[in-house]
Every structure is written in structure tokens, then in C-alpha cells.
Amino acid sequence: MRRGVRMLMAMIALGALSGVRTHATEHAGQWQEMSWPFPRDGWPAGRAFRCTAGGCDGAELYVRAKRGFCNCDTGVADDDEVDRVTDIDLISPRFTPVAAGEAVSIAAMRGRIRHYDFDMPDGARHAAAGLALSRRCDLLVAVAQGAGEANAVQRAALVFLETQEMKEWIAAALDGR
Which residues form the signal peptide (predicted)? Predict the structure, then answer.
């Protein structure tokens, strides 16, 4: 009898844990890595991902480190800096900030995130969230963009950036490894 109760409790606990994991995964979306889509410039290529499920279907996320590119004292100080450094212009040179940005923290770094609307080369309208985070004198920049609702894409991208895999990659990229 006791063994049966323990097994039942273990099954309930495992079910609850899998439910928590599923809920977190839904917020993170399901991101599949793809090739860096932009031409070479003065910075190393980063990592690019496409969301295949979880409320951000079809959205894309581009992340890269820009070492030695940040004000060592103030970090990412204002929205003008976010506009300048986030690589949003690689997607489309015709972008418009929607509102003032907000302070944000990811992987023990602080910075700002800002929403944009822009026109794709094929004429489609997309929404994006540009993110710039600083660590000492280095930047981590990311852009999440897609045809979907901007807040859902932003939430999914932020949750994904907080995964252990991405935190480890971010640390390695900022350390030059």
C-alpha cells in the first residue's frame, strides 16, 4: 500500500513538473537556429533563430556581441543608443520607434529595449523589439522581429535569452570565446 502511495505521489509530482516546463516553453516559444542572414560588417556574426511555435510563429531573433563598443561608465544610457546599436537597420533602413524604451535586465546585464515598426523590402509591415545590454565595456544586442504581435514576440525572445544555453553563449561571446 505504501509503495503504491509513493508511486502515485511521484507520478503527480512528475506531472506537475512537466506542466510547469510546458508552460515555460510556451512562453519561450520554440526557437530553431538558422544561418546569420546579414552581410559581414565590422562585428562578428551572431546567432539567428526562427520561432516555429508558441505564439511567436515565424518571428526571427538575431543576437550578437559587440565587444568594446559600449560606454564603460554608463552602459546603454538612452533610446538613441538603442536605435544606433541594435542592428535594426540591417533588417530595414526604414524603421520607426513606436514609443520610448524601457529598462531591462537579462543574464545579469542591464540595458534597454524598444519597440519599432518597419517596412520590409517586399512592402510588408513588421514589428520588432530592439535590445541593447551592457557588461562592462561590451554590448549584447538583439532584435526580435516578425509579422505577429510585438509584445508576444518580445516576451518569447526574452524568455529564450534567459535559457541556460543562451546565457552560456552570451557569456562566451562577450568573453571572446
Answer: 1-23
What is this structure's pTM?
0.81
What span, in angstroms and rounded, lies between the C-alpha atoms of 132 and 9? Answer: 45
Q: Minimal CA–CA distance to 118: which of 142, 88, 141? A: 88
DSSP H/E element including 170:
helix 164-174
End-to-end CA, the chain: 55
For residue 58, what pLDDT is reported? 87
| Cβ-count burial 84-102 (b if 16+ within 10 Å, e if not) | ebbbbeebbeebebeeebe
Sign, Cα dihedral of 51, 29, 115, 130: negative
3-class state of residue 122 by DSSP: coil
Residues 50 and 48: their CA atoms lie apart, in Å, by 7
- How many CA atoms lie less than 13 Å away from 102 in the CB half-sphere? 9
Q: Could you tell me the domains of the chain?
A: 2-174 (3.40.1000)
